[in-house]
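User: Some background: our group keeps a shared notebook of sequences we're curious about, and every so often someone picks one and asks for a predicted structure to add to the entry. Today it's my turn. The entry only has the sequence so far, pasted here. Could you supply the structure so I can complete it?
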Amino acid sequence: MKIRTGPFVSPSSRMQHKLGIIAGGGTLPRSLVHYCIETGRAYCLVALVGHAEIVHLDGVKFVHWSRIGAAGKIIDILKGEGVRDLVMVGPVKRPSLITAMPDIRGLKFLLRAGRRALGGDNSILSAIAGELEAEGFRVIGIDSLLEGLLTPPGVLTCTTPTNDLENLIRIGLEEARKLGSKDIGQAVVIEGTNILARETSEGTNDLIRRASSLARNRRNLILVKAKKPKQDRRVDLPTMGLETVQLAAEHGFAGIAIEA
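Assistant: Of course. Here's the predicted structure to add to the notebook entry:
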């Protein structure tokens, strides 16, 4: 009888292509690394300077650092590592064209992308995904790799909203989708039937702080978040992290409603 030692690697994992991870902020890039280690999948992580957080990548192997505008360097790293499948994950603060300092390949991308590169986050990221696919990579969504990442329908806490609150949440959901259709943001904060504040490029946590300062009664505030209509799920799937939940609680919000 033979005793297996070390991590179990399924036969299918040996057939998988090396996974490239372009990492912004937050903890999801590290979660992807853990997934690769547990499944025996080879990976290469490109961390974006000024966006990826060193604290979340401490101890992670096979990490390359690059500024966001160095498209040529990033592509050369990925191709040099033999990457075929590619995931873009983690929030990235939108830079101006000046601070991004695009290299020659980055400038060519901007010229090809045209107006798409000047739109909202979804337009920009979809354009980037299209350029990466033109380079021969297959861009995939993180939810196709990490099981249990998507929010299930139903009540997720011990507090069930009343029928009146559900009606208010529907108002917020409709407004969040209107906002998303303009490719501006993905979330709003409601106070009763009023839309108190809308998400901007500063993100959901900034929205929570602004709404809190505007509220007459913080206990009436509900954060509502949804994906944008026609959103590219591979590159810009809306997320709700622990920090955001804690911040809403600290500011006395009545609850959070997110699209399943």
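Suggested note for the entry: The beta strands are 19-23, 43-48, 63-66, 85-89, 138-139, 187-191, 194-198, 221-225, 255-258. The two ends are 47 Å apart (CA to CA).
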